[in-house]
Amino acid sequence: xxxxxxxxxxxxxxxxxxxxxxxxxxxxxxxxxxxxxxxxxxxxxxxxxxxxxxxxxxxxxxxxxxxxxxxxxxxxxxxxxxxxxxxxxxxxxxxxxxxxxxxxxxxxxxxxxxxxxxxxxxxxxxxxxxxxxxxxxxxxxxxxxxxxxxxxxxxxxxxxxxxxxxxxxxxxxxxxxxxxxxxxxxxxxxxxxxxxxxxxxxxxxxxxxxxxxxxxx
Length: 217
Prior knowledge:
Elements lengths: L1 E6 L11 E16 L9 E4 L1 E5 L2 E11 L5 E17 L10 E4 L1 E2 L4 E2 L5 E10 L8 E2 L5 E9 L5 E9 L10 E9 L6 E2 L7 H11 L1 E6 L1
Antiparallel strand pairs: 1-16, 2-3, 2-14, 4-5, 5-6, 6-7, 6-10, 8-12, 9-15, 10-11, 12-13, 13-14
């Protein structure tokens, strides 16, 4: 005998029953393949992927880092969309321009208008060689949540669960996108990885709207 409890959230639009969740099945991936053409063609070819969230595209793609003649490899991955980011300075022989990197949000951490967003940011940058640049690898070997902003104004906010494999050299590794969710109410925060109202809100909904109990045999 099994009991299933269902909360009646359908009429709770004002109480955060407004999160849209999409599980990508199969997962989407961005990676590189070997280029059959000889040098000076790049030895790897990027195979990007685009995830469309409520009509807004987020493209994940590899890009090359030049380490000298014949020493090219896909040393960075860009996210082209509107993602929350942080800044990290890359230093070589002299100061390089600020390179923005996608922010990783902890589970349940609020994603809202207080974060900075940019339409072009990186998951990692693996510089070096004669360029004298350093590596910044915040997402390498990590599975976590990035914050997204959906426009136009008034903005809506959401999250996307992604990972970057450890084997980024020399082929750039594999970026995997698993699922995403977003708020349909403009300006409302969403917790990273969250699909439902917060626990306190759920309790109030259960009391105010009733509980349906289904008995299975």
